[in-house]
Write a structure and sequence with these properties.
globular; Rossmann fold; Arc Repressor Mutant, subunit A; alpha/beta; 5 domains; 35 helices; 7-stranded parallel sheet; 6-stranded parallel sheet
């Protein structure tokens, strides 16, 4: 038996770690005191050690229930590699292998036995377990991936429900339930289904700060989008697909594009799956293309990116699957391709479920995934809220935080929405509330008399999509609640009433409507204008925050839209924008024009880099030498140096035109270019007269070309 002061020594001895990770030590202590436990610890948090170390410090055998052969093999291999007595019994073994391992267990050589639930509870095995209990003792049952016990979990397995028979047959043996993800509903279900007795409940934070989350609109040429994404990453990656056929097709196409990739799905033989998995774990291949059959318990810590090619079925699955990236704590990337075209495929899968209640639960879970994909708040706020953990947002490691959508004050709209929820007596979901707000003539609205409510029709000024966006935001920000029984009924909470009583403001990130996005896809110029509008919107917000004024005081949205469309490149053009006064041009003009110029340069083709001869000229210029001095040093004519400097200006290199051309001459040359065109230096000179020489005109023309 152990002594408390030797726990760190045991940790070092068996696993080589000097210190426990957060939460581990207390769990190990309680396990050593034979307490039932529910441990929820995210992937990479070290939950396996929570039952492995107590197993090694207590007398007898610990039986570990695990759902997958590959998972058992991984963990047993890792333990054996540390010199620990561990084995598994499953269908991959011959009769003689099973007999040999059973004998090793009875001789006390094995401390951890891994088994699938159906084999553990088989009539043939239970008498052997009785023998083990009487001869050497069973110290604990560890139920790994315990979310499988719950129909509300993301990977429900009916055979896990039978685990309650263990408690009936062996009432005095402690039971540890462990999983990486479980909502509060799933936690209660696990406790009830396994009949855990006053369990110690340990819930680590679900936040994985090293993972970058982003959602990308799934393009029609989705494979090309995927290929580009993979080529932008280094290291190992997993691509999750919905169907086996798609897994095979994408793996094949990636191979043809010289990406080392292998498929993995349940339609393959055990041997083929095992071979491909091992090649991926060993870094023989970079990419594993897989269905959700791949990944549970995979101990590969250095997966650098996970891409969901299709929508996952629920947020728990997404959290688990994306969480296979960055288990080493290093930075990793999690991308979801989102298209509403994937929704009917998932609906079809849900329709195959025989139980109507299961269908309702699955549809609610799918809706939560869609809310995540369409959400504009911090991705972590949305995911962690799903698991009952509050996160303040601004994680600086997701697309919505790094590239935020424009923020608007929707307090009045929120009051309308929440008031409607209250007047409908908190008995309906989002769709019905929106129908009432928008004055729908649906039978359901009139059937309940909701066409007579004061909130009926007060939201006609907003589209249904806009109201849905607000509803999602209210839920994500905790300003409204929703039931989780498959019906999604909206409920008010304390914060809701603060909004209704004007004690709390509601700010939401606003995305373009789907119609606007579709037009943007068809019309590149409009797409460009929308991107620039977002940039100007953020600049306006920064200026407004600095001055502690509402953003519209700086410029109206209509002015920003005109700026985005017309792209003024100097103050003179900027003052032509509707809503821009001389005062505002003097106060804000340079900042907005600079932002527009920067955006326009980013949209252009890459600027050519200077050649070696250009670089030498530039270096001498930066030593404050004149054109003549540079020409003398380099053995060139002054004309050649002027050519170099002109080309350097066009290449956006640091050449100050004011050092080369008198400021009083610059403006007349620009006006001449605007009048007669840029193509002929002779034509420009003839228009200007003999007071201007060709080098001056050439240098100013280079500057003008760069700016235009």
């Amino acid at each position: 038996m152990y002594q408390l002061q030797s726990l760190e020594e045991a940790l070092k001895h068996f696993f080589g770690y000097d210190t426990f990770r957060p939460g581990q030590r207390q769990i190990v202590e309680e396990a050593l005191h034979n307490r039932d436990l529910l441990v929820i610890m995210p992937t990479g948090g070290g939950k396996s050690l929570c039952f492995q170390l107590p197993a090694l410090l207590k007398p007898g055998l610990t039986v570990v229930v695990s759902p997958l052969i590959s998972l058992m093999q991984d963990q047993v291999d890792a333990l054996r590699d540390n010199g620990i007595g561990a084995t598994f019994l499953n269908s991959s073994l011959s009769f003689s292998e099973v007999r040999s391992r059973e004998q090793a267990i009875l001789r006390g050589k094995i401390k951890l036995l891994y088994m699938a639930p159906e084999r553990l509870l088989a009539e043939k095995f239970l008498p052997f377990l009785d023998t083990v209990q009487s001869q050497i003792g069973v110290s604990a049952f560890a139920i790994d991936e315990a979310h499988c016990v719950s129909a509300w979990g993301h990977d429900f397995r009916p055979e896990y429900r039978q685990m309650r028979h263990l408690r009936q047959r062996y009432p005095n043996i402690p039971m540890l339930a462990l999983t990486a993800t479980a909502t509060s509903r799933v936690q209660q279900d696990i406790i009830q289904q396994l009949t855990l007795r006053q369990p110690g409940i340990h819930i680590a934070s679900f936040n994985r700060p090293n993972l970058y989350y982003d959602v990308q609109p799934k393009q029609r040429q989705a494979y090309n989008q995927l290929l580009k994404q993979i080529r932008s990453h280094q290291g190992s990656g997993i691509v999750y697909c919905l169907s086996r056929r798609q897994v095979d097709e994408i793996a094949f196409r990636l191979q043809n594009d010289q990406i080392s990739a292998l498929p993995y799905h349940a339609g393959m033989s055990d041997e083929a799956r095992s071979t491909n998995q091992n090649r991926f774990i060993r870094d023989d291949v970079q990419i594993m293309v897989a269905t959700v059959a791949f990944g549970m318990g995979i101990n590969k810590p250095d997966v650098r990116f996970v891409i969901h090619y299709d929508l996952p079925r629920n947020l728990e699955s997404y959290y688990q699957e994306s969480g296979r990236a960055g288990r080493d704590g290093e930075l990793a990337h999690c991308t979801l391709f989102f298209s509403t075209r994937d929704i009917p495929k998932l609906d079809y899968i849900i329709d195959q479920k025989p139980d109507p209640q299961e269908q309702r639960v699955a549809r609610q879970q799918l809706r939560q995934v869609i809310d995540y994909a369409e959400g504009t708040e911090c991705r972590r706020t949305i995911v962690l809220r799903y698991f009952g953990e509050r996160f303040p947002g601004n994680c600086d490691n997701c697309d919505n935080c790094c590239y935020p959508k424009p923020i608007e004050d929707w307090t009045i709209e929120a009051q309308k929405f929440l008031s409607c929820v209250a007047r409908c007596r908190e008995r309906f979901g989002t769709t019905h509330i929106i129908d009432v707000l928008r004055g729908s003539r649906k039978k359901k609205v009139e059937q309940y008399g909701h066409h007579l409510l004061s909130t009926y029709g007060i939201g006609k000024d907003k589209t249904a999509d806009a109201w849905k966006m607000l509803a999602r935001s209210l839920l994500h920000q905790g300003l409204m609640d929703e039931t989780t029984d498959g019906y999604r009924v909206l409920k008010l909470n304390k914060r809701s009433w603060e909004v209704l009583r004007k004690q709390r403001q509601v700010q939401i990130a606003v995305t373009p409507t789907s119609k606007a996005q579709t037009l943007a896809e068809i019309n590149p110029r409009k797409a460009e204008a929308e991107l620039l509008f977002e940039r100007l919107y953020r600049l306006r917000k920064q200026l407004a925050d600095f001055q502690s004024v509402p953003p519209y005081v700086i410029f109206a949205d209509s002015s920003l839209k005109l700026m985005a469309r017309n792209k003024p490149k100097n103050l003179e053009e900027f003052t032509q924008i509707s809503g821009v006064t001389d005062y505002k041009a003097n106060q804000y003009g340079e900042q907005f024009v600079s932002e527009i110029r920067g955006f326009c340069q980013e949209q252009q083709l890459p600027v050519p880099l200077p050649s070696d001869t250009h670089i030498k000229t530039l270096q001498l210029y930066q030593q404050d030498l004149s054109v003549e001095e540079i020409a003398e040093r380099r053995g060139f004519t002054s004309r050649t140096i002027i050519n170099h400097l002109s080309e350097l200006i066009e290449m956006q290199q640091p050449v100050d035109l004011n050092r080369l051309v008198a400021p009083e001459k610059k403006q007349p040359i620009i006006k001449a270019i605007q009048t007669v065109g840029e193509h002929s230096l002779r034509t420009i000179r003839e228009h200007l007269g003999e007071n201007y020489d060709y080098p001056e005109i050439q240098l100013v023309r280079a500057w003008w070309r760069r700016e235009h």
